[in-house]
């Protein structure tokens, strides 16, 4: 029996009246515009697999429509909102404040339609599944992760080592698994070994195995990770932590495809692809004599750099929502999505622990959240917004100081622009530019 699947659509629920040009721009980018008004109750014709973004067009903020927006917000708290704000918008009513607080992006009117389309693509996704990169298992829609996936697809079928670099928690192991699963070795074993976690005296035997009686306590023959992964892939995480004797054995394996178990002189031929990762600077380790230069060149044939999360702004909220959805499948929680300030804080934060830290914070927030929306406090990121506010007030203090300095100097120079420019050691053009920037009319100042 044929199974009919409804195609996913992208809809903007527009509270207000889109101009012809706005409607056409969105339609061209593949968005269906549904105009909503005071009569719109709860249901706005969304289907489960549709991507929906709500738009508060405050050019037409009549109280009944604002009320309908607030109702939709209450019924569907996880809906993302954007707001269009007219330049002459007067004092806020509490309902409008709530809408602005819930909005991820604001646009002053007249609207720059290209920017609006870009924002909607960011919020709602370019294509319904663009974030999954097919079968690679790597999630993200940022340009940086797109470049990683392109390299992974190129490197996967090539039988050469790949050196994966990147800060802790950036997904180096995820990338290694993708290289394996997209290679011809996909149905053979994948062994991930954290070299830094192995006791130095046991590294050789863990990797390459040992014979019975090879050392005190070796009561039986043991097969190492390389032999266990025969035909497949070995991923050596923190390869810079390998002791020098293990580096020598690894180099021989890469050059000749053979290994010796500890306590044996018999050469074993093996087909294993080696992937390695490091979060430390291996070049420096080579300079300091802690890492063999010849091994470094062997491992570094193909190089993959995993970008830190702070360079993947477009992925942060997407990954957070994925982690929350995965958590919801396994555990009971009220949380379904993130508040607007939580999203802002996630975008502002620099994520020193990268994707792993994001995963941990989201899981913790899902446990402590008492609402359907995860708040900035649930994520323990309230400080981030406080610092941002302090920075922006510092910015506005600087602007005010610049304005005051220009006015004072103009007064002292009896409004002679050339004299003022000389005193401030800038050009006359700069004085005119500053007057324009701070909306200072020379005639009115006199
Ligand atoms: N693109 C991604 N999509 C989904 N989950 C990801 C992604 N990247 C990383 N993760 C998750 O983040 C966590 C850390 O990833 P991973 O262990 O691959 O990082 P790493 O760079 O190898 O870290 P370390 O340097 O500490 O070994 C894992 O739980 C992983 O599943």
TrEMBL record:
GO biological process: regulation of DNA-templated transcription
A Pfam match: Sigma54_activat
InterPro entries documented for this protein: AAA+_ATPase, AAA_lid_NorR, CheY-like_superfamily, Homeodomain-like_sf, HTH_Fis, P-loop_NTPase, Sigma_54_int, Sigma_54_int_dom_ATP-bd_2
Domain of life: Bacteria
Domain Sigma-54 factor interaction: from-to ranges: 138-367
Alphabetical UniProt keywords: ATP-binding, DNA-binding, Nucleotide-binding, Transcription, Transcription regulation
SMART domains linked: AAA (SM00382)
Molecular function via GO: ATP binding; sequence-specific DNA binding
Full protein name: Fis family transcriptional regulator
Source organism: Dyella japonica A8
